[in-house]
């Protein structure tokens, strides 16, 4: 017993080191949300209309549609290979954009730029798939916190890149793009070494230990978010302050290494006493062990014969009828797509993330239309508050499943109705409404992402989760095309006036008012679908609650 506990804790040190590198990958894999930081440079350099610019953004999001390849690969290739593919794609996609914006090469034809933006967008699907699938399998008893923390750092990545670029390069779009190309490549090479699939927690004690570590990760993430937000409000920081900010930020991002270090020290301490404990147990309990061994020898034939009798009719039944899996069991992608619950989750996810992406992709033009010359603060606020939505919803939804069996989709429903309120605020365009609206949209978009990931794994299982997850996030390019490329692009161009030298521009609240109203209606539809899914899945979440409750009661009775 002592040896097993020591070896499992030693193994957990490696598991936590892999989780730290996963956090780092997620902290740099949100580069898809940074398009607003350099979109104006592309628009002026290539003389694009708003519709053409929005379609470039759609091309970036279309890269996620090819995430199906990453989903298929996640069941066949090891995690390091998937990470390597994503890092190389990002280096090529963003590296080419840097060459264009920096003036090192002439602007490429429009269709070629679409391809390279697509490559950059697709790179994140390989990174996210490798990280999410591996970590949810490693920590399957704490799926909510895992999803919240990892998706939270994706939300923070926009603010991390934006603030680092502002601190070091004064918002230079060319230098920003070289950061997007090089930093993710280097971080993924680190994760390739340490991130592996490991056995999940097997006991209540290990599950509680995981929860303690996740609380530490949550606390560190909140500190990083508050720190980034505070820096955003410093007016015209000096070079020294900017440099100090960058150094402290890197230290904060490295601080989660304390978790695997603590696990390693704990393992080393227990190893010191293992030999002595084994000797004492051999001296004190030889007769008990011998008697137990004899009983096992006598009982084993009877157990084997009984299991053979039970297994034989089961095998015959399996040959006769192949039962379709029910919700809560492992589904293939085709079995999942034959269920009503999958399509309810899919469409409600589209209503939330599609409209949220439209705001993020167009935040630069939205801010300019409402009279804000510098929109970097709104971009950072959307990112940071999106982080709070992700990290809080992941832990809170997990807590209430364990506490009362509350269906996870109900948290999505709450975020959808709140997001609709945010769009109405931005449509009204009162003074300060863009501040409030960007915060509300960021929070709700974060909730939507963090809660939908574990929901899909709980309803359709973990065996084919990589592919199911990538089918689900097809909503990102689809939503970007519908709400950003078509809706926002056409309605903006209808309100805009031609600009000298090509392109167009629009100033005033009317530019995006109808866009916000339509997106608010879409969120109300998503709210209704999420409530319906919560009602339909109440039984499965009640079973999860009862199962965990019975395990806790059994563990408590064993201690008595």
UniProtKB/TrEMBL annotation:
InterPro entries: MFS_trans_sf (IPR036259), NFD4_C (IPR056555), Nodulin-like (IPR010658). Residues 336-541 form the NFD4 C-terminal domain. It is a multi-pass membrane protein. The chain crosses the membrane at residues 81-98, 148-170, 176-195, 216-234, 240-265, 342-360, 366-388, 409-428, 434-455, 467-492, 512-533. It comes from the Eukaryota. Pfam families: NFD4_C, Nodulin-like. It is found in: Membrane. Keywords: Membrane, Transmembrane, Transmembrane helix. PANTHER family: PROTEIN NUCLEAR FUSION DEFECTIVE 4-LIKE, UNCHARACTERIZED NODULIN-LIKE PROTEIN. This is Nodulin-like domain-containing protein. It comes from Populus deltoides.
């Amino acid at each position: 017993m002592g040896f097993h506990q020591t070896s499992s804790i030693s193994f957990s040190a490696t598991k936590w080191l892999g989780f730290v590198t996963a956090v780092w990958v997620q902290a740099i894999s949100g580069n898809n949300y940074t398009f607003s930081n350099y979109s104006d440079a592309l628009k002026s350099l290539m003389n694009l209309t708003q519709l053409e610019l929005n379609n470039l953004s759609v091309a970036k999001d279309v890269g996620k549609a090819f995430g199906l390849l990453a989903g298929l690969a996640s069941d066949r290739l090891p995690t390091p290979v998937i990470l390597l593919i994503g890092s190389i794609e990002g280096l090529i996609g963003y590296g080419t954009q840097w060459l264009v914006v920096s003036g090192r090469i002439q602007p490429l034809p429009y269709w070629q730029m679409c391809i390279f933006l697509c490559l950059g967008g697709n790179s994140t699907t390989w990174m996210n798939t490798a990280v999410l699938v591996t970590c949810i399998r490693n920590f399957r008893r704490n799926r909510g916190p895992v999803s919240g923390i990892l998706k939270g750092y994706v939300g923070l990545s926009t603010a991390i890149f934006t603030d680092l670029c502002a601190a070091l390069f004064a918002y230079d779009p060319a230098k920003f793009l070289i950061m997007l190309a090089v930093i993710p490549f280097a971080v993924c090479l680190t994760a390739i070494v340490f991130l592996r699939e490991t056995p999940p927690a097997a006991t209540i004690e290990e599950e509680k230990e995981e929860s303690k570590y996740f609380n530490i990760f949550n606390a560190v993430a909140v500190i990083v978010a508050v720190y980034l937000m505070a820096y955003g409000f410093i007016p015209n920081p000096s070079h020294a302050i900017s440099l100090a900010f960058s150094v402290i930020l890197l230290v904060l991002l490295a601080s989660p290494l304390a978790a695997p270090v603590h696990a390693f020290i704990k393992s080393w301490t227990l190893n010191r006493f293992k030999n002595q404990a084994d000797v004492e147990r051999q001296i004190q309990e030889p007769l008990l062990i011998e008697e137990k061994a004899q009983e096992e020898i006598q009982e084993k034939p009877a157990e084997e014969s009984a299991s053979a009798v039970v297994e034989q009719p089961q095998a015959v039944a399996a040959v006769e009828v192949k039962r379709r899996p029910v919700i809560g069991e492992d589904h293939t992608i085709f079995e999942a797509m034959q269920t009503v619950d999958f399509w309810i989750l899919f469409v409600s996810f589209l209503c939330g993330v599609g409209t949220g992406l439209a705001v993020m992709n167009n935040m630069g033009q939205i801010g300019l239309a409402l009279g804000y010359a510098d929109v970097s603060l709104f971009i950072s606020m959307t990112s940071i508050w999106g982080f709070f939505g992700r990290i809080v919803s992941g832990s809170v939804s997990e807590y209430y499943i364990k506490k009362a069996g509350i269906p996870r989709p109900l948290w999505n429903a709450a975020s959808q109705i709140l997001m609709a309120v945010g769009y109405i605020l931005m449509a009204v365009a009162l003074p300060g409404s863009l501040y409030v609206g960007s915060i509300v949209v960021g929070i709700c978009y974060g909730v939507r992402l963090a809660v939908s990931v574990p929901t899909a794994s709980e309803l359709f299982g973990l065996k084919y989760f990589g592919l199911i997850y990538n089918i689900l996030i097809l909503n990102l390019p689809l939503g970007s095309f519908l709400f950003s490329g078509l809706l926002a692009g056409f309605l903006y161009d209808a309100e805009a006036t031609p600009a000298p030298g090509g392109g167009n521009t629009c100033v005033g609240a009317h530019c995006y008012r109808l866009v916000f109203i339509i997106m608010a209606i879409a969120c109300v539809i998503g709210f209704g679908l999420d409530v319906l899914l919560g009602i339909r899945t109440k039984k499965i979440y009640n079973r999860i609650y009862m199962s965990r409750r019975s395990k806790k009661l059994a563990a408590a009775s064993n201690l008595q």
